[in-house]
Structure formats: structure tokens, C-alpha cells
Specification:
Radius of gyration: 15 Å
Number of helices: 5
CATH architecture: 3-Layer(aba) Sandwich
Order of helices and strands: HEEEHEHEHEEH
Helix content: 25-40%
Number of domains: 1
Number of strands: 7
CATH topology: Glutaredoxin
Strand order of the largest sheet: 5-4-3-6-7
């Protein structure tokens, strides 16, 4: 691979404003019912989507090596989870291709307080998308996807914040 092509790939991969063309890799779209899933969370609990019925749920698919994910996740902690957890927001960060052991170390190092779920074989991710992270899906109390985004941009994150507040107000 030429050095210029490698540099371009690295710049895209580690850019905090990384975003891809809308719709690329989507399986689930806004307005559709969110697929059912279950997985093991850091701490050992099993998280099952059926137990989240009637709640506003933010799914954030990430990887510990993903630069844009590491920009987005602290904002999820402070701007969404800390602000809205008492209002009923559920945040599930789903570690694509990560084990519970890896995610336990990651959570402890980053000090995230929202729930982190392992998805070592992409079984949960495969129900929502085929490629690209970070990805966020906001599921409304009715079980339908209210917001979906891939990549990370500050403008998209502002839309997510507005959508979370609106869904919690219903």
C-alpha cells in the first residue's frame, strides 16, 4: 500500500469527526422496530432487550481501538447518561468484538458508569448493521428506532441529545 493511501486511511480512522455516507451498512432504520437481543454486561448481568420494554434506550456500538468512539463515549457519559439517567434513559454501550474481561478493564480505566455489554462475535451488532462504528440507535418507549447514526460528528450528537430529551418527555 502506498504511504499516501495508508495516511489517508489513518486520518479517516482516527478523525474525531469521522462520518460515512448515510445509510451505509444499515440493517435497521429509523421507524422500524428494534431487533431483540441479549448479551452479557460487565459485572456479569445478562441484558435482554425484552426487559427494556417501555424505556428509552440508547445503544452505542463501539470498539476500544476506535478513535471516533473514544471521542463520542465521554460525551455520552456526561451529556446524556449523567443528565438523563434519573429521567429513565438506559445507555448500553456494546463492545463489538470484545469480551467481558476486555471491557471490564476498559470501563475501569475510562470510568464510564453506564452499562457496557460484550459482543465478541458481533451477534448483537449483526442485527443492526453490517459495517462501521461508532453507531448509535435510540429506541423509544414504543420499541421503535427514533434515531440512528454512524460515525461521529458534533452536529449529529446534538441531534441525538435533542431526540433523547424529546423521547424522555413523552
Amino acid at each position: 500500500m502506498k504511504a499516501s493511501a495508508l495516511l489517508a486511511l489513518l486520518l479517516i480512522a482516527f478523525s474525531p469527526a469521522f462520518a460515512v455516507e448515510a445509510g451505509e451498512g444499515d440493517i435497521v432504520k429509523v421507524g422500524q422496530t428494534a431487533p431483540a437481543f441479549s448479551g452479557q454486561a460487565v459485572g456479569g448481568a445478562t441484558v435482554d432487550s425484552a426487559s427494556l420494554a417501555g424505556k428509552v434506550v440508547l445503544l452505542n456500538f463501539f470498539a476500544t481501538w476506535c478513535g471516533p468512539c473514544m471521542v463520542e463515549m465521554p460525551r455520552i457519559e456526561t451529556d446524556l447518561w449523567q443528565k438523563h439517567r434519573d429521567a429513565g434513559l438506559v445507555v448500553l454501550a456494546i463492545g463489538r468484538e470484545h469480551t467481558v474481561a476486555e471491557l471490564t478493564k476498559f470501563r475501569d480505566a475510562k470510568r464510564f458508569s453506564f452499562q457496557i455489554v460484550a459482543d465478541p462475535k458481533r451477534e448483537i451488532y449483526a442485527k443492526y448493521a453490517t459495517q462501521y462504528i461508532p453507531r448509535c440507535y435510540l429506541i423509544g418507549k414504543d420499541g421503535k428506532v427514533k434515531y440512528a447514526a454512524m460515525g461521529y460528528t458534533p452536529a449529529d450528537f446534538e441531534k441525538l441529545k435533542t431526540t433523547v430529551a424529546a423521547e424522555l418527555a413523552k
